[in-house]
Design brief:
Layout lengths: L1 H6 L4 E6 L6 H8 L13 H5 L1 H4 L5 E8 L24 H19 L5 E4 L7 H7 L4 E2 L5 E2 L7 E8 L19 H4 L17 H7 L6 H7 L8 H4 L25 H5 L3 H7 L9 H16 L2 H10 L5 H13 L2
Antiparallel strand pairs: 1-2, 2-6, 3-6, 4-5
Helix pairs in contact: 13-14, 13-15, 14-15
Length: about 325
């Protein structure tokens, strides 16, 4: 299985026993309201905590990881979108899911008649917890999975199966006394125990929502067009990142537009450019809203002109955000 994972382009592969997870962290996180508007996190909780509820007779979980780090361009002019690294190329769900399914087929070749449930982010599977149990890395204080070789710049997938595979040792926690990520968070969303309050998280507001962003968070969100990498950028384990050569992570055309161009995208142009990009997640409204907020950070004559023009936009979320930005830009 590990040889097959490497052949498919995964950088790490480990195996864990499919025993139930400790229910307290997830249940307390949901009870505290930290899931914000992500209602899907409150669904299928039993399956998230116990792979045996997801796949009857589950005995093993195969966890895989793929490095996605690409260097920043030497310089970025004002008005350039600021997108989290994982989202700058093609939507990883598209190609990572295919690779995980190919790994599933290999397991079925090795063990005919096996039952296997593949997952890449969209199933009720706690992928970070299983990657930690399978020895790939540990869940850091910022809530990301951190690996010794690739830092936290990795994408995850899993296979839950009723095949009994020799498990790897869980990875020890290696954050130690370091807590550089906690004060670095622009909105104080990190709770210090590997969890975050989504209600304060820039990634939540710029990716998961299409409504207006709360005024008290807008200035922080103005620095990001999609997602946020601050807690990863300050992590010492990301100090010497390994570069990936995979073309899937080449910049997507949508990320090459200026913020003013993103903010003014017509429905037709959006439909044409958004194909295959993670930036589709918040929809045209959410993406344009984010780009309008970026004009606040841009702060030049173009930003003032664009925000004034968009304050009369037919989309009420975009119009309200643009009026707010225009007022602050004078």
């Amino acid at each position: 299985m590990k040889e097959a994972a490497r052949a498919l382009g995964f950088d790490l592969c480990g195996i864990a026993e499919a025993r139930p997870l400790d229910p307290e962290p997830l249940r307390s996180w949901i009870a505290a309201g930290h899931a914000a508007g992500m209602g899907y996190m409150k669904e299928h909780v039993e399956e998230r905590l116990d792979p045996g509820k997801l796949l009857k007779g589950a005995r093993s979980v195969v966890a895989v990881a793929m490095n996605y780090h690409r260097r920043d361009p030497p310089s970025t002019p004002p008005g350039t979108p600021h997108v989290a690294r994982y989202a700058r190329g093609r939507d990883y769900h598209l190609f990572l899911r295919r690779k995980v399914r190919k790994l599933r087929r290999r397991l079925l070749e090795l063990s005919p008649g096996a039952r296997v449930h593949p997952s890449v982010d969209t199933s009720p599977v706690m992928e970070k917890a299983w990657a930690e149990r399978a020895g790939l890395g540990w869940v850091g204080k910022n809530g990301t999975l951190i690996t010794e070789r690739f830092g936290s710049y990795v994408l995850l997938g899993t296979l839950v199966t009723d095949v009994s595979l020799a498990p790897d040792a869980p990875h020890p926690e290696r954050c130690g006394s370091c807590s550089q990520c906690l004060p670095a968070c622009p909105t104080g969303a990190l709770l210090g125990d590997g969890k975050l309050d989504s209600r304060l998280c820039i990634s939540y507001w710029t990716i998961e929502t299409r409504a207006s962003i709360p005024p008290e968070l807008r200035a922080a969100c103005a620095d990001w067009t999609f997602g946020c990498d601050v807690c990863q950028e300050v992590c010492p384990w990301n100090g010497e990142p390994v570069e990936t050569g995979r073309r899937d992570f080449d910049p997507h055309p949508l990320t090459r537009l200026r913020c003013s161009e993103l903010a003014a995208l017509s429905p037709e142009r959006y439909a044409e450019l958004a194909v295959g990009s993670p930036l589709r997640r918040p929809g045209r409204t959410g993406l344009r809203r984010n780009a309008v907020l970026n004009l606040l950070a841009q702060g030049d004559a173009e930003a003032r002109e664009t925000s004034r023009a968009l304050s009369a936009d037919p989309d009420p979320v975009v119009a309200e955000t643009a009026a707010w930005v225009a007022e602050r830009l004078g």
